[in-house]
Structure formats: C-alpha cells, structure tokens
Amino acid sequence: MAENNNLLQALQSIVQAENSQINTAVNGIIESYNAGIACVKPIPQKRFSDGSKIDYPVIPNIPVMWPRFAGDVAGVKGPVRPGDKCLLVFCQQAVDDSDDERRFSLTDAYCIVGGFGAAKGRGAENDQMQLYFGEAYVALTEDGKLLINAPAGVEITTPETLNKGLLTTEGKLSYQAGMSGTGGATINGTVKATGDVQGSGISLTQHTHREHDGPSTGSAQ
User: Fold this and answer.
1) Which residue ranges are recorded for the region named Disordered (predicted)?
2) Cβ 47 vs Cβ 53: under 8 Å
3) Quick check: 50 and 20 in contact, CB under 8 A?
4) Could you tell me which of 62, 65, 66 has the C-alpha nearest to residue 39?
C-alpha cells in the first residue's frame, strides 16, 4: 500500500510540474506600445506546485488584438498608453507558424487591451452603449436615441448629408457656400441681408412701382 501511495504521489508531482509550465491567460500592464505591438508585464507572480513564486518577465513583441470585421475593413480600436491594463492569452501552438513543439509559451501571446471592473466615471450610464474618450462620447440608448457629446466640436467630411426628419438647432445656424431648398419658410424675427433680396425675380433694392395717378417710385437710383 505504501508503495502504491508513493507511486501516486510521484505521478501527481510529475503532472503538477508539467502543469506549472502551461500558461493560459493572465492580466498584465502595458509597458510600451508601437504600431500594434506591445511589451507587457504580467501582474501576478507565477506559482509552482511546491508553493514557490517568481515574477514573470516583461514579455516583448505581443500583437494587440482589436475587434475587426468584414475582412478587416471594419473594426474598433483605441489609443494604447503605458500603464493600461490588458489580458494576455497564451496560445496552445506557436504563433509564428514554426514547426517546433512549443505549447502555451510566454512567447506565443496575444494582448487584449481593457481595464478591469467598471469603466471609470461611466457607472451611471448602464442603459447606454458608449464609445467614449475623456468627456467626449457617442452613445446609443435602449429606446433608440443617438447621443453625441463633443466638447471640442464635431467635424464631418462627406459629399452629402441627408436628414429625413425634423432638424432643430438651439444655437446659431451659419453656412459658407449658400443655401437652397424647396418649400416655404417661416421666420419669427428680423431678417437682415447685406446683399439684394429677390422674390419671383423682383429685386428688393432695384424694383420700382407706380403710385396711383403719380410718378414711378421705388428703390432704384
């Protein structure tokens, strides 16, 4: 019986020793980032079956993963800075397509950038889906409303913008290349123009009209 116990303990020790060489996933901190490649320091210590622990080394040359779709022509990414938190995922095969026997190696990692826990300062908007950067954000609400907060302004570069609903502005409306449209216009307030105003081809500044039984009068000089 003692021999069986010793054999079992020996096998367990071998299995635990092998398992301690397997890396699956661990949280880390970005040390540097350049063009989609990061150097990352794992946060926890590596633990072994005998209870000992060591610090992980800084792992270089880790590809950063971003959600991408439609054959990589669509996706979402953000700015990565030293100190950002991430999740390191270690692959079961070598990621460089080599023919060696590497399994779950520290050198075969991918980095998924993202903090842990609630987003800083965003806990109150649990009914919104947000894309944010500092105080600026674009949000979709559950009832179908689009919210945009852009403290530095909104710049749109497009050949044409089509709005199919009512357009209301609470601030001043200005334009640079003229305005045209169809339908009537109702303005509650004073209309000022530095140039001429025409209606049905008749100039406001150049038209004349004839008084009853009198000479022609008008704005023409």
Assistant:
1) 198-221
2) yes
3) no
4) 62
Q: Are 88 and 109 in contact (CB under 8 A)?
A: yes
User: Which amino acid is present at 4?
Assistant: N
Rounded distance between C-alpha atoms, residue 175 and residue 147, angstroms: 24
Helical H segments across the chain, by residue range = 2-19
Each of the 221 residues of the chain gets a pLDDT tens digit; together they read 566 677 666 666 555 555 566 788 999 999 999 999 999 999 999 887 777 889 999 999 999 999 999 998 999 899 999 999 999 999 988 888 787 788 888 889 999 998 766 666 665 667 888 888 988 999 999 899 999 999 999 999 999 999 999 999 999 888 888 888 888 888 888 888 888 888 888 888 887 766 666 555 555 54
Domains for the chain: give ranges and CATH numbers: 23-113 (2.40.50.230), 121-159 (no CATH)
- What amino acid is encoded at 183 in this protein? G
pTM score of the predicted model: 0.70
